[in-house]
Amino acid sequence: MKKFFKLVGFASFIGILYYGFITYPKLDLISGFSAKSIASGHFIDHRSMEMIEKGDNDIKMIDLATNTIDENGQFATASVYGLKERKAIYREGLGATLIDADFDISAPYEVPKRTKLVSDKLFPYGNQEAKDTVFSSVDYAKLNAAVSNAFDSTGKKDKRTRSVIVIHKDRIIAEKYDTGFDKDSKILGWSMTKSITATIFGILEKQGKYDIYKPAPIVEWQKDKRKNITTNDLLHMNSGLEWEENYSTICDATKMLFQAENMGRVQLEKPSVFEPNTHWNYSSGTTNLLSYILRNQFKTHQEYLDFWYSALIDKIGMKSMVVETDMAGNFVGSSYSWATTRDWSKFGLLYLHKGNWNGEQLFDAGWAEYVAGPTKGSKGDYGAHFWLNAGGKFPDVPRDMFYCSGFQGQMVAIIPSMDLVIVRMGLKENPEFDFNGFLRGVIGSLKR
């Protein structure tokens, strides 16, 4: 019997050692994710640490982290069993930034200059609501049922929708929020930020300041075959550059988001493994490289920070939006933008109206068609930093739908044929939220 217990004890010891061996390299990423999530959620959206831990950080492995918030210092820290402590600092205007031990928190920094217009016009062009708008073409009973069905029923946690808004003919026809959230809650869009980044290129192109079909302006690529990669290739995620994006393990994407000082240079330094426009490969590194390229189009860092807001975000009244920066001062164009559900819907409406915002053309109408054109090799699922339904991913949804999509089920769906924008913000990832069923229900409430 003693021999048996010794064997069991030895096996347990070996098991603990093995678990530590395979887990330790991940601790830096676990604590990094947790610290960043806590800092952003608390200081941007004023959520409690308990709410963030139960609602945002209840992800396998991430839930191992122990977190703290320093209100006076405006930062959050996280560690795993006391190991690999990471810190994320909050700076008004820049959001939260995950920093390393070498980052000088006392150094001066620039923030975007914002113009948050207040207007007495009706939503979406102002702050007033048209409360008496009723469309005879909408079956509101069906619509409200479809929207309600997207949320968890009492005591359950299987859909995890936080908010839904449905806009038809520029009017809000349905809007609902989960407990703890409302129309003023700022919610992280994750990879929906990619579509924001791409739009800046569309605006610059309309202004005659950038040509996406020319080779990408990267000095380091001029002596090898990467010199042939165009911005158009980057926007379509078919540059041919090496990249691994797999959030279940340590990969290029996770190391970039939770370890890199300058996220824009991570993809830049990767070798070419395919010829441009021959191999589609989704890459958050590519988007941060595009943000890096954008920064170099301006004479100063301040101009770069200001332009995203003055030319797009504040221009369309997304006054709640904050795009966060990395340690080097680049917008993390792949992943880190926060906004209310209503403000996310405004971005969808901008594309529904092909770049025209209340009479002003922000980007050429052809740009909306460009981003919704299928990328070679994507089987009709991807355009230029927008996802598509051209390949029928959602069989019960019109094929002309294109959409912004974020980690854990964020979506801004644009359906031109129905004059419709639908936003769903939530957390459901595995198994995925039933977007086809949800969209089918909403669409089915509109008489065609």
Task: Summarize the structure in words.
With 448 residues, the chain is an alpha+beta fold. 32% of the residues lie in helices and 16% in strands. It contains twelve helices and 15 strands. It has helices at residues 2-45, 49-55, 140-148, 193-206, 231-235, 252-259, 264-268, 284-295, 301-313, 341-352, 365-371, 435-443; strands at 65-70, 75-80, 83-91, 95-99, 161-168, 171-177, 187-188, 322-323, 337-339, 356-357, 360-361, 387-388, 402-406, 410-415, 420-426. The strands form four sheets. Strands 6-5-15-14-13-12 form a six-stranded antiparallel beta sheet, with helices on both faces. A four-stranded antiparallel beta sheet has the order 1-2-3-4, covered by helices on one side. A three-stranded antiparallel beta sheet has the order 7-9-8. α1 crosses α6 (252-259). The protein is globular. The relative contact order is 0.13.
